[in-house]
Amino acid sequence: MRAHEAGALHGNDASPSWLPYPADVNALLPGLWSQTTRRGADGALEVGGVSVADIAREVGTPAMILDEADFRARARRFRDAFAEAFRPLAGADIYYAGKSFLCGAVARWVDEDGLGLDVCTGGELAVALRAGFPAERLAMHGNNKSEAEIRRALQAGVGRLVIDSLDEIEQVSAIAADLGVRARVMLRITTGVEAHTHEFIATAHEDQKFGISLSAGDALEAVRRTLAASSSFELVGLHSHIGSQIFDVGGFEVAARRVLGLVREVRDELGHEIAHLDLGGGFGVMYNTQHTPKSPEELATGISSIVEKECHELDLTVPRVAFEPGRAIAGPSTQTLYGVGTVKDVALGGPHHRLYVSVDGGMSDNIRTALYDADYSCLLAGRVSDVVPAVVRVVGKHCESGDIVVKDEYLPADVHRGDLISVPVTGAYCYSLASNYNHVPRPPVVAVRDGELRTIVRRETEDDLLALDVG
C-alpha cells in the first residue's frame, strides 16, 4: 500500500463550510442547549440553577450534567403531541427508548410522566424492574435474546416482547409453554426502507441484522406461525423501525405504507385484525448548525396524516400507533463538562495550522465521533472571553489519533489549561456506549434541578476497575 505524507491533507485551519463565524463566541446557540442552561453573572454556565464551576468542584471532570426539567419536559411534550395528533384516530403511545440512556432515576421519571419504556437487553430490563417500572408498560427488544432474557421478561410480565426472527418464534413459544404463560408479542418487520442516516444506524433496509423480511415473504409466515400457536402467543401487533437521527418523515411514509400493506394481507388471508402498529423512533436532534430537527408537534401531525391516508387508501381500520423516541428526549437534556489540559498549536505545512485542545475525557465517554463521524459543538464554560475566536479541535486523552470529541468549532483563542469546556447534546448514546478504554473510569451523571445537584450514576473508580481483574 502506497504511503502518503501526513499534514495538510488531513487538516486545515479553515473552518468547514457549514460552520458559521460566531457573532459572539460566548453565546449559547438556540437549540443546542438544555432549557435551563444560561450564563451566570460571573460568566460561567449554569444548568438547573447550578454553576458548572460548582459541579466541577463537587464531582470533578469529566461529568455528564443532566437537566432534569428539560428531560422530563421533552418526554411529556412527545407524549402530549402524539396523543393530540392521534386522538381523532385510534390513539398513540410513547415508549422512551432506554438504550439512549437509562438508569434508575430516568426509569422512574419516565414512569411518573406516563410513558412506556423499551429495553433491549437483560441488563436494561434489570434496571427498569429494580426501579419499579410497571412491567405491562415495558417493551423488550433484541435481535438475539438469550433464553434467560426471554424467560425473565415473560416472568416479569412485559407488555410487549418484540420478536425479531422466525427462529425466535419457536424459542419464545417453548419458553412460554414451559412457564405456562401466554406471551404478548409484536413482530418486528423489515420494510426495506433505507433511512437517510449513517449506515450503522439505518435499520430497515434488507442487508442488516434486524427484523423479519417483508419482501421475502417471511413476515406473513411469521404472523401465520404466531397465530397458529395461540396457546403460547397473544399477537399484540407489528413493529417497524427504520433507523436513527432521521429528519425526513418521508421514510416513515414508505415504511407505514408497506407495513400497513402487510396488515391488510393478514386481514384478507388470515382473517386477523392487527390492532397495534409501532413505527419506532429515530427522530433527529440538533448537534450543530447543520441540523434542523422537527418539533414533536410537527412530527406527530405529519405522521398521523400519513397513517390516516394510508389506512384510508388500503381500506383498513386505523390501528393504535406507538413511537419510541430516545435521542430526541435524552440527547439535548445533557451536556458533558470537561477540564482542559494540553493546548497545542500544530503547524500543518504552509499557512495551515490547527489548535488542538485536549480534555480529560474523550472516546471512553463519547465514542460517537469516532464511530459515526458525528459532529458536536462546544463552548468555553467556566468564563467568557473577548479574545478573537479560533477554530479548534477538541480531543481526548486516549491513545488513538481518532480520539476526537469535537472536530471543528470556534472557541476563544486564549483557551488554556484549567479552563472548563462543555459539549452539548451528549445525553443520548454517550454514556450508554461508554467504555473503560485505556482503563479510564467512566464519568458520573449528575442531575440538576431548581438549584440542587444530585448524582444519579456515580463516577467509576480504579477500585471498580480492579475488582473485575481476578487474575
Computed structural class: alpha/beta
Helix content estimate: 25-40%
Shape: globular
Radius of gyration: 24 Å
Instruction: Estimate what percentage of residues fall within beta strands.
Output: 15-25%
Q: Could you list the spans in which at least 5 consecutive residues all have pLDDT below 50?
A: 1-13, 197-205
Looking at the chains present, what oligomeric state does this protein adopt? single chain
What is the averaged pLDDT score? 92
Number of strands: 21
Separation of termini? 40 Å
Number of alpha- plus pi-helical segments: 12
Largest sheet: 9 strands, mixed
Please tell me about this protein's structure.
α5 packs across α6, α7 crosses α8 and α8 (250-270) packs parallel to α9 (296-313). The protein has 471 residues and is α/β, with parallel strands linked by helices. It is globular and about 70 Å long. Helix content is 28%, strand content 24%. The model is unreliable at 1-13 and 197-205 (pLDDT under 50). The strands form 3 sheets. Strands 4, 14, 15, 16, 17, 18, 19, 20 and 21 form a 9-stranded mixed sheet that branches. The chain has an 8-stranded parallel beta barrel with strand order 5-6-7-8-9-11-12-13, surrounded by 7 helices. The protein has helices at residues 52-59, 68-85, 104-112, 122-130, 147-156, 166-179, 218-228, 250-270, 296-313, 327-330, 368-372, 462-467; strands spanning 38-39, 45-47, 50-51, 63-67, 92-97, 116-119, 138-140, 160-163, 183-190, 212-213, 233-239, 276-281, 320-324, 334-349, 352-359, 379-380, 389-395, 404-412, 420-424, 445-449, 452-457. It has 12 helices and 21 strands. A hairpin with a 2-residue loop joins β2 (45-47) and β3. The longest helix is centred in the middle third of the chain and has 21 residues, at 250-270.
